[in-house]
Amino acid sequence: MIKAGVIGASGYVGQELIRLLKQHPEVEITAVTSKSNVNQHYDDIYCNYKGIFTNSFEEQDMDRIAEISDVIFLALPHGVASKLINEELLKKTKVIDMGADFRLKDIGIYEEWYNTPHYSPELIGKSIYGLCELKKDEIKKYSLIANPGCYTTCSILSLAPVIDHEAFDASSIIVDAKSGITGAGRSLDMGTHYTECNESIKAYKIASHRHTPEIEEQLSSLAGKEIRLLFTPHLTPMNRGILATCYIRMEKEIAESEIREMYMDFYKDSPFVRIMKEGVFPETKWVKGSNYCDIGIKVDKRTNTLIAIGAIDNLIKGAAGQGIQNMNIIFGLDEKTGLGDIPIFPA
Amino acid sequence: MIKAGVIGASGYVGQELIRLLKQHPEVEITAVTSKSNVNQHYDDIYCNYKGIFTNSFEEQDMDRIAEISDVIFLALPHGVASKLINEELLKKTKVIDMGADFRLKDIGIYEEWYNTPHYSPELIGKSIYGLCELKKDEIKKYSLIANPGCYTTCSILSLAPVIDHEAFDASSIIVDAKSGITGAGRSLDMGTHYTECNESIKAYKIASHRHTPEIEEQLSSLAGKEIRLLFTPHLTPMNRGILATCYIRMEKEIAESEIREMYMDFYKDSPFVRIMKEGVFPETKWVKGSNYCDIGIKVDKRTNTLIAIGAIDNLIKGAAGQGIQNMNIIFGLDEKTGLGDIPIFPA
Amino acid sequence: MIKAGVIGASGYVGQELIRLLKQHPEVEITAVTSKSNVNQHYDDIYCNYKGIFTNSFEEQDMDRIAEISDVIFLALPHGVASKLINEELLKKTKVIDMGADFRLKDIGIYEEWYNTPHYSPELIGKSIYGLCELKKDEIKKYSLIANPGCYTTCSILSLAPVIDHEAFDASSIIVDAKSGITGAGRSLDMGTHYTECNESIKAYKIASHRHTPEIEEQLSSLAGKEIRLLFTPHLTPMNRGILATCYIRMEKEIAESEIREMYMDFYKDSPFVRIMKEGVFPETKWVKGSNYCDIGIKVDKRTNTLIAIGAIDNLIKGAAGQGIQNMNIIFGLDEKTGLGDIPIFPA
Amino acid sequence: MIKAGVIGASGYVGQELIRLLKQHPEVEITAVTSKSNVNQHYDDIYCNYKGIFTNSFEEQDMDRIAEISDVIFLALPHGVASKLINEELLKKTKVIDMGADFRLKDIGIYEEWYNTPHYSPELIGKSIYGLCELKKDEIKKYSLIANPGCYTTCSILSLAPVIDHEAFDASSIIVDAKSGITGAGRSLDMGTHYTECNESIKAYKIASHRHTPEIEEQLSSLAGKEIRLLFTPHLTPMNRGILATCYIRMEKEIAESEIREMYMDFYKDSPFVRIMKEGVFPETKWVKGSNYCDIGIKVDKRTNTLIAIGAIDNLIKGAAGQGIQNMNIIFGLDEKTGLGDIPIFPA
């Protein structure tokens, strides 16, 4: 049994981690922490766990938790994880960081977009970006995994198969993404007060969302050249789900069927990526409650543009599920272990 | 492995059965039928199953399916199941009927409320009302299970522990229930067109809903006397969930804590019923995606009334989940097998 | 032109008052206040007003505002209005209090349910409960109007026509009410965070909601005897609307058609009450955006119970609209002035 | 008083026309028709009109209705209006066609995208595209107005001010639009069944939506050159509202403030267009229930792209409201008459 601790278990990502860990056949939960809920029972905060997971939140004693855990998940705001971990800790336990602190390899870009110094720059080179479909073989060599962002997972997976192909103009990418409101977390805010976001849609953090450089860095790495793109997130009145509508111009004509083959081939060893048939496109409802990423493509011949659309459950493939997938990989399990849930519909 | 067939697998209840059966560790699906989808692939109708369950719908050949199945689930409109099954068929296979045809033991009441003759009255006496928490020991003796309705499951479980207690006036019961819109099924109807039911709530089938006599028959049986009650269903703008707010007048004073003890005791062997602590009340979100029924109680001393509130996921404990629970019981499995999902939140 | 000021104009009720006042043909807005928004432009807080109402919030200088206003609307938490007004102020201006401070005539009941002393008990006797359909003739004589609560308006209107009739058992009343989430106001709270209340329904403040004594006091007054009833509010995942499902036992048989006549007759001079035809019941969508209260009735002969169902827009007939209606009455205008909006659908 | 008839008054656009016409101070409704509802009372179909508009649907006798009407609104499927009207009819009455038949001036494009012959090609030249902000002066000269589509109105208004400017690459336009579900109308369809579209978002008619050539034709006309663009509509789980996120590459650097000036200037005589301040962007909630089109802009210097975002209420500025605005213009009224509703929030 893998012994797992969760630091920051009272937010939505932490809570989803608990659900997946608790249902995982090879995991035992060692500790849950939350600064504001110490000594409270987990199922008093989240009544869905009543009679299922009744442990108390404990103090965030990293050393102690590292002693008793094979892996620690950090579900914390950016700037906190990088203060919390160090090489000593990583000798005792693996760390899967659900936050942003180790996602960007370029520390300058991190400090520019997050507007804060990085507190453990020496660890950046010792961490891996845990987008499982792209880095499966490398991930298993690392003790510190930077679990990707939700928008980024969906956007990168939707574009990766063509990004290094000469027919596509990598400088033309626009990603117009739509997220459910769990993406904004559980902290109270006027923007996520029910009656302020229900029955309305808006774009936000236009041309300034922090997932932009993360998508760019990974796609640049895949393409072998520097890519700049435009990313626009939208807040959509629903609980879960991300839909990323990605546009990339084509400089040569390629048949849609040929591009679909490229996608099928690229993801042939990726059990969680499903490429839609011709004329079928993802809807967030078809992946809700699962670790799948569905991708559909369409070539618009009138404008020579590939439209690649991806859909994920932001709390699963976009966060906790991918965290579990990373854990499975680093511990040598089948990456699907504990992630077999069929999408639940209508939910 | 239990071999299971699903007749009427294209509706929401059928679909939820497929999800739970497919994830069940002791089940193999033998056949799925749907009159209007013969030869279509399951995952072309329900894309959540893409790459997971790709079988084709087949003709509804009951004899053949009975030959290859240990159990058949019927997810059909009322009046259809009673035509479809007979004693011959029940010798070959168990049948769990998700519909209404065998729920009422009084054929006169059935014919009055459903406004149709009953097509196999001889089987009524050979069937059992499959409300697992009340009939666990009897269920295992039967080959034909009448799986309870969604509203009825929630209402009966909320009232059962006190219904035969002298302090409660069984003639005073009012059940005011609220259901999500999956309860209305997948057939197109103006009442369930998105823009007709979104952002609105209404009562419907007031004083005339067919779950009324079903609740009455079961509560009467528990109380040992005839009970008439008032049941009002409401359509609530959400996908899943039933909340039943039940009112029963008290003729003697009993402390709320004492009543809570009665509930705890009544359900001490029922792993899917959770009795809330004092001051905590069910919300449908806390049971969504699970087979739980949460119950909270409150005594209003000002009016001497017990308010018992139950919450279920109408497609799980109110339909498919309870069907699986019945299957587990009749095949001698632990009743929780395949039903261990933690409620998914926020979903 | 009536000169009107709004104290507490930054909440949802205040905002709806501004909308209705601004569109009212006989009103000019003199001042808007909000403690936390002084000097901010109204349309920076509420962008719907961009280019329409751009005034700044000012300090809450009651004397000054009274000088320049014919009427002042108070949209404040309970316990605040009673500190703010006095007889001097009421000599200068009319006051329509949207809050609870002057709704209950029995000060003991007020202090018990609101758990606070009353700060201007001498004014209670000089105020009138502004449920327009019941008190039209008296309202015009008063300078201080206690605008009724949202649940109370809907509940009282649904039961008033039969409450003093001998055939009905006034001791048996249960009101099971469902409200949209604007009813909880604009203050941030975990219970109204989008992802905590979306796709779920719950009862709250069970047997303890403060609108209970308000309904009781008014119905008692109509019935000419003391009435105690049970009131259960539910939080429903939608922005606006209240549906009150009211149950009252009948001790004699009366035909539904005869009861409907009683309702039609009772409200024959009430342009905002619409009595539904036989077999038709209110839905909150049909009154949204309007000052209507729709009422449908059904007699359940099986249990000798009258089910009376009322629907209102909680922010209009349940708050701001009724406030305007009260203003129209005290200034001698047609009560419909500025309240002619047809319900907006689908909205 | 303008006498107005509505052909096809039972759909959502027809119903919204009735609401606005009924509230219009200068209009009297002469006739309402609906093939499937003849002789039914309007308020039996739409209960919001109870006691307000109780006329019966009548036969669709165009000649008779033309005799008694100054203007006829057609709210019909494409291909129907073009059969229904002719020059004779246009001599008797003005016609405002809410459908697609006269929007495209290039008949070949119409027949290609709508896959049907045009039934009155001789009238195309005698009609005007009724996007009021662009064609106010011409509209008043015409008897046949092609009321623009919902997506098109929002998209064109968002891009018009810069489309002919040399700094912008008109060949680079991508419009990623999100619509509420009233946009799909009232006809029953699996895609708009509540539980199929609630809590999910999807793109549809990708690179093939019929509003594409309509946007192109109008923008081409403004730009003075042929424009091809990519348009992707998305179905969003909410009743009303369209948000169009428009991308256009810049070939020269222009300050955002300068572009904002261009927008302010372009719409200086357009009372229904509101240009947001720097850093503020439209949300559909702020225009709901009104005829406004809110537009916000942002220059992304990293990719030299202008992001222009427009928001409208699809049933008002995107349909019925613009129809009324057109009517006001052709009858010489202030274009705001009857369209003064402040956006209703939270609704």
In words, what does this structure look like?
4 copies of one chain form a homotetramer. Chain A is of the alpha/beta class and 347 residues long. The first copy, chain A, folds into 2 domains: 2-148 and 316-330, NAD(P)-binding Rossmann-like Domain (Rossmann fold, 3-Layer(aba) Sandwich); 151-312, Dihydrodipicolinate Reductase, domain 2 (2-Layer Sandwich), CATH 3.30.360.10. Helices cover 31% and strands 20% of the residues of chain A. The first copy, chain A, has 13 helices and 13 strands. Chain A has helices at residues 12-23, 42-45, 62-68, 81-84, 87-92, 107-114, 121-124, 132-139, 150-159, 194-197, 211-223, 256-266, 316-330, and strands spanning 2-7, 27-33, 71-74, 94-97, 127-129, 144-146, 174-179, 202-203, 230-235, 242-249, 273-275, 293-300, 305-312. In chain A, the strands form 2 sheets. Chain A has a 7-stranded mixed sheet. In chain A, strand 1, helix 1 and strand 2 form a beta-alpha-beta unit. Chain A is globular and about 60 Å long. The mean pLDDT of chain A is 98. Chains in contact: A-B, A-C, A-D, B-C, B-D, C-D. At the A-D interface, strand 7, strand 8, strand 9, strand 10 and strand 12 of A face strand 7, strand 8, strand 9, strand 10 and strand 12 of D.
